[in-house]
Amino acid sequence: MGQLGTGAGVGLGLVSCPQTLSDAADAPGWVGFLGFFAAWASYMTNSPTLIVMIGLPARGKTYVSKKLTRYLNWIGVPTKVFNLGVYRREAVKSYKSYDFFRHDNKEAMEIRKRCALVALEDVKAYLLEECGQIAVFDATNTTRERRDLILNFAKENAFKVFFVESVCDDPEVIAANILEVKVSSPDYPERNRENVMDDFLKRIECYKVTYQPLDPDAYDKDLSFIKVINVGQRFLVNRVQDYIQSKIVYYLMNIHVQPRTIYLCRHGESEYNLVGKIGGDTGLSPRGKQFAQALKKFIEEQEIVDLKVWTSQLKRTIQTAESLGVTYEQWKILNEIDAGVCEEMTYAEIEAKYPDEFALRDQEKYLYRYPGGESYQDLVQRLEPVIMELERQGNVLVISHQAVMRCLLAYFLDKSADELPYLRCPLHTILKLTPVAYGCKVETITLNVEAVNTHRDKPSLNSVSLAACSLCKRCFAEGLMCQGMPLSDCL
């Protein structure tokens, strides 16, 4: 029988959260106890964690905050960024100049402190009342006084604290950051590049007057932190406390900001695609081979410098890559999702032979695990090393499979677990991903080679509820419930 997956089989350390079985019945989606626990991923840390950014303006703090949050949410750890600039702009509707950030501007200093306290209260609500696991406090936090305030706040609420300090003294990097990000900031509606550069550099000077970097040898030697120096040229890591902090450190040591392009595509149409079967290890159809040749022509026309090509170990991706006439690497972890007992069957055959399993998968596609196979959640965990390596590399073409491509795409586009299994990744189509300041630009390239459509839309609410009714007795026994439907109405 299929399952709603709980991840890597790790014991769950539960976090207090005011959500009960009756609460869940009113929530959208088909939810089970295991689904709640998997979503929290609380086995990674035994208490909520507050990540505190440190650094002068234009040092990439917001870039790191958003990127780290995207990664943590992708691996199943509920995470949210709290950007102090947003709170400041709410409190002060019109920004006039760098004078607001002078240390001797007492009125402004008081406003900034109040904004920080409001933000921290929102952090508290997120971690204690909204089932958040990690909060990222994105602010300069350049003084010991401010950091001590945060540490006391965390101690009062039993939060772990991990500091991330971004240090950069490269004027070219700082100038590039100002021009790329700050010119479009709400603080500068006029978008005048020269005026923005002048004012922002003066703002930085205001912060430098009171900046107290983390001191690993004395004052801050007992704190948990990582210093990222000059955009990853060097790192200093101090007193990592737990598994999730070690994952954060590893991730931050693998990302870079160099320009690059990532190309994602599926293999050419396979023989099993033609007959609607999932899984297996068949070769390409005639149209699949035609796509492989079209892909070769496309890649040659792009004239991509130092392009790396990765495939799975399945025949259809290897045949697609071989047509390129370049060296490629085979990754077993890029293999398609394992459908277990449903391998090499059509969806119609699965529905006829395993009607309960077919209905269960439509209930919660991300968490559902094929009998003897994998869930999308399992696949995300399997693909984490691929994401790490993609973050380390330059230009890469990944030739993979529908479910695998969905997982990778969800990471780069910051898609939720609910959206991930329904992302459109058609055959014979290339997605060109270009990382930008706070996200990823996507370009869809169709090579005009026909192929079958393998996409299945998300079932409607009504069809899901009706399909679940035949399972309700089993659902009740397992502590699960149907979509928005009281159990008493279904039994």
UniProtKB/TrEMBL annotation:
Gene Ontology molecular functions: 6-phosphofructo-2-kinase activity; ATP binding; fructose-2,6-bisphosphate 2-phosphatase activity
UniProt cross-references to SMART domains, sorted A to Z: PGAM (SM00855)
GO cellular component, one term: cytosol
Pfam families noted in UniProt: 6PF2K, His_Phos_1
An individual GO BP term: fructose 2,6-bisphosphate metabolic process
Coiled coil: none
Key word ATP-binding present: yes
Entry binding sites for substrate: 266-273, 316
Keywords: Acetylation, ATP-binding, Hydrolase, Kinase, Multifunctional enzyme, Nucleotide-binding, Phosphoprotein, Transferase
Occurrences of domain 6-phosphofructo-2-kinase (ranges): 40-259
Its EC number(s): 2.7.1.105, 3.1.3.46
Catalytic machinery residues: 267 (tele-phosphohistidine intermediate), 336 (proton donor/acceptor)
UniProt function note: Synthesis and degradation of fructose 2,6-bisphosphate.
Complexes and interactors: Homodimer. Forms a heterodimer with PFKFB3.
Family named by the database record: In the C-terminal section; belongs to the phosphoglycerate mutase family.
Protein name: 6-phosphofructo-2-kinase/fructose-2,6-bisphosphatase 2
